[in-house]
Specification:
binds zinc ion, 2 domains, mainly alpha, single chain, 67% helix
Length: 75
């Protein structure tokens, strides 16, 4: 049998959740804003996604420049 939340194999046949997901459920009972916290930590909004794209694009351009300089030096 598999865990109803994560789909991994669960330790107890009788339980709906594996031990890790049971722990998450316990935390959710203690803190009402677990979903919001997870979304804040793990999910990016549009601005954050665009910032990340800009950073990656800049790094790729820098790498391309470095490669061009390296090949010029070899020639
Ligand atoms: Zn699980």
């Amino acid at each position: 049998m598999t865990c109803y939340l994560c789909g991994k194999k669960k330790e107890s046949y009788m339980a709906y959740l594996c031990n890790d997901c049971q722990r998450i459920q316990d935390i959710m009972k203690l803190y009402p804003d677990v979903k919001e916290t997870l979304e804040f930590v793990y999910l990016r909004n549009d601005t954050q996604i665009n910032n990340k794209k800009d950073i990656v694009t800049k790094k790729l351009k820098q790498l391309k420049k470095v490669k061009e300089v390296e090949t010029e030096q070899v020639d």
